Please model this.
Amino acid sequence: MTSKDSKGKEVFREIKTYMPIPHQLGRGDKMGRGPYDKSGILRETSLAPGKQTRETFMIPFPSGETDMTVTVELWYLPFGTKSDPDNAFLWRKETKKVSLEKGGV
Amino acid sequence: MKRISKFIAVFALIALPLLLTAGSRDAGAAETKKAKTIDELAAMYDSSSCKQCHEEIYNDWNKSLHARSIFGTGRTAATIKTTVEVGLKGWKYSGVKKAEDVELRHLMICAKCHLPQLADATDAVAKEIVKAAYTYADPKTSDSEREKAIAKLEKVNINCLICHQRNAITHKWVDGTPDRKTVYGSKNGDHPAPGHPKMKTSPIMSESILCGQCHGQGPNFELENPSQCATLYGSYLFSYRHDGGQESCQECHMKKSKLGHNMQSYRSKALTDAALDFHVDMLPHQWRDGSKMVPETRVQVEMVNRAGHAIPDG
Model:
């Protein structure tokens, strides 16, 4: 989730991660990483089947501005970074311009 | 009489272990000869002749990651190296000090799903796979050597004979051990192929449990040192089915997606489109903090997972 001001400068960024966070060797308080290291789930934030996941973000407008462009991207990223085309998949993207009403009381 | 009793007792002592051995052999894999090389293992499970009659299905399968299950996109092969370097070599009791020490039992933590037929091979095949994975993952490897390593790793895979024979029966005490001369699908009868002259119905061919053998419930406790890759089948059972879901893996990944044997997941637009409802709503407004107006926008993102399992798994 990012938003940009009227000049294209990024003014807000927030990332949320959805995944089963694997338990390292099924013990303690650490997350495991490779398949050899994982046994069980330490914490679960993946999208559950049939369930709705709702996220609410409050983004302040940049000082003195009445317009802002907000982009929401949902990536499937099993490994690596978003710049790796073999391992990063953009599933959904929505960009909307939001504006405050002019005038009023 | 006493001599006869003694003879019966001695016979029983000799025969009982033999009978027990024969029984356990029947209950296990039908193949008794172990492959000593990747080439031998590839030949043991060679499904290339299936293409002669099932060309479209074969070509579909060939586009899937099942066709390169031990190489993957390269990430699987690289993870084999990481498993040895970070896992096996670092564990006090694994018996692995260097890559050459890896035995079949070690590699089964990957191969249980990525190459289940490795159970029908010797330690030499495990070592050959590890060597090829190291060659592939080494940045100093030349392009030609890397290509050779990839080709070697792609010789063995999850092919027709894994799903339609080796893994086509999960409950062997109920349905018997898969016969190496039979292919298992949706029909019984003769099968006009020299190596596989019979076909039989597999009771699980259209059931999720077929896929669940590999697409996992979590830690693989049957291993000496459990590994965990997939948790999809656990999520399917304990969340999707729990909440009333009724469709099978095959219905979404093969039929509705129209992908057939080119079974895909997050790389397929057909599946990713179907898997998720995604809606974004925005409400720009001015919050009044006493006498001061604070301009802000609410952004609400609603997602509904329409798949039969968690997204992602792992």
The two ends of chain A are 32 Å apart (CA to CA). Chain A touches chain B through 51 residues (CB under 8 Å). The mean pLDDT of chain A is 95.
